[in-house]
Automatic annotation (TrEMBL):
InterPro entries named among the record's database cross-references: Efflux_drug-R_Bcr/CmlA, MFS, MFS_dom, MFS_trans_sf
Recorded family membership: Belongs to the major facilitator superfamily. Bcr/CmlA family.
Predominant cellular place of this UniProt entry's protein: membrane
GO BP, sorted A to Z: xenobiotic detoxification by transmembrane export across the plasma membrane
Protein name (record): Bcr/CflA family efflux transporter
Membrane topology: Multi-pass membrane protein
Length: 415
């Protein structure tokens, strides 16, 4: 299937590029660009999930407790949101390349510093610096897609990116567990730093080859750009949907070590496998979504998949209420997390379709709202009673709000 049969001299709307790209869904260039963008987006799950199995070892090494190490997740998510808010207007003004590559370099530097300075206070500060750089890199990805695609084709490409990067959350805990056992927990951050620097080289050589350093966009202030995005009211519903649906997964990620290792009593190695199992259905949903997009609009699929996520949470509530056993809990959580495989690409496509201009600023606002709300909820969830049921009920609140947003009469007609 042809997505775009035109050759572009400046692919991905990044002025100054000299590489020609034919946008064919089955072509190697198409998959190559998707792979690099997916690898960039994978910074999120890699930075969040790779060190999860190391929490007990890190707490022991740094002289603190596991829940204090878990605080670094919330700090990372909050700062990621702030980094995107700063980077979005800059990427619209000065181009994607300078912002994206600078962010990756900062992420890599912070990662190596965590390896060198093994103190709890340094961990917290450097995780914030890591997140700030990651925000600069990740905010450019939706903007690059929107520069060329819209509607169903954008949803398919976002789904392709999701399909490629689904391996990151599935493999990250296992990779972290292997590095932990072989070299100790600091090696996890050496890996993250090397990964970021590899991305710098690949992006510069492939996507941003010949990139001009001159300003690329109109000279508008940060407030003017954000004002234009906020004035596009129909798009804002999708921003809130993304924040709430993502919060469902973030609540699980934040407490996954407690759920599996403490509540159900599994080993670090088995924890990595169980965590990865939650991503299996995400892959299935992503593949299914790509096929459904041949017949249905992204908004229609979004309503169905958000309802499917809610069903998974209902099953989790029933399991914890009547038969709280791991073999029943796992498939219900797989359904809850896995639904995001189809939810996220459709939300991104629906939202970004409104922004032919100010794409990076729009992506920044969406990312900032998504990560700040998810970070706040994951942080506040530490105040809940220390039980799996309390965590599931917090997920249920987020899912219920999603259903209200997508299924109310006015919104359903708009979709």
């Amino acid at each position: 299937m042809i997505v775009d049969d035109v050759n572009y001299n400046s692919p991905w709307a990044t002025p100054g590029l000299s590489v020609e790209v034919t946008f064919l869904s089955d072509s190697k260039p198409h998959l190559g660009f998707a792979l690099l963008l997916a690898m960039t987006m994978a910074l999120g799950p890699l930075a969040l999930d790779t060190y999860l199995p190391a929490f007990p070892a890190m707490a022991l090494s740094l002289g603190t407790q596991v829940h204090q190490i878990a605080l670094s997740i919330s700090i990372y998510v909050f700062t990621l949101a702030f980094g995107q808010l700063v980077a979005g207007p800059l990427a619209d003004r000065f181009g994607r390349a300078a912002v994206m590559l600078s962010g990756l370099s900062l992420f890599g530097l912070a990662s190596f510093c965590i390896w060198r300075f093994q103190h709890y206070e340094a961990l917290i500060a450097l995780r914030a610096l890591q997140a700030f750089g990651a925000g600069w890199a990740m905010v450019c990805v939706p903007a690059l897609v929107r520069d060329r695609l819209s509607g169903r084709e954008a949803a398919k490409f976002f789904s392709l990116i999701g399909l490629i990067m689904v391996a990151a959350p599935a493999l990250a805990p296992s990779l972290g567990s292997l590095l932990l056992e072989a070299f100790g927990w600091p090696s996890i951050f050496v890996f993250l730093g090397a990964y970021a620097l590899l991305l710098v080289l690949l992006l510069k050589a492939v996507i941003f080859r010949g990139q001009s350093t001159r300003p690329q966009g109109p000279h508008l202030s940060l407030w003017q750009r954000y004002g234009a995005v906020l004035a596009t009211r129909p798009a804002l519903r999708f921003m809130w949907l993304q924040a709430l649906a993502f919060s469902v997964m973030m609540l699980f990620i934040t407490h996954s070590s407690f759920i599996y290792q403490e509540h159900f009593g599994v080993s670090p190695g088995l924890f990595a496998l169980l965590f990865g199992a939650n991503i299996v259905l995400m892959l299935v949903m992503n593949l299914t979504n790509r096929r459904l997009l041949n017949h249905f609009e992204p908004q229609q699929i979004l309503r169905w998949t958000l309802s499917l996520q809610a069903l998974g949470i209902v099953l989790l509530i029933l399991v914890m209420a009547f038969k709280p056993q791991l073999w029943l809990f796992l498939p219900a959580m797989m359904l809850t997390v896995g639904a995001l495989g189809a939810i996220t690409p459709n939300i991104q496509a629906c939202y970004m379709d409104y922004f032919h201009e100010h794409g990076a600023t729009a992506a920044a606002l969406m990312g900032a709202v998504q990560f700040s709300i998810a970070g706040a909820l994951s942080g506040l969830s530490s105040l809940l009673p220390e039980s799996v049921s309390a965590i599931v009920l917090a997920q249920a609140v987020c899912s219920a709000l999603c259903l209200v947003l997508i299924w109310t009469r006015k919104n359903a007609q708009a979709a």
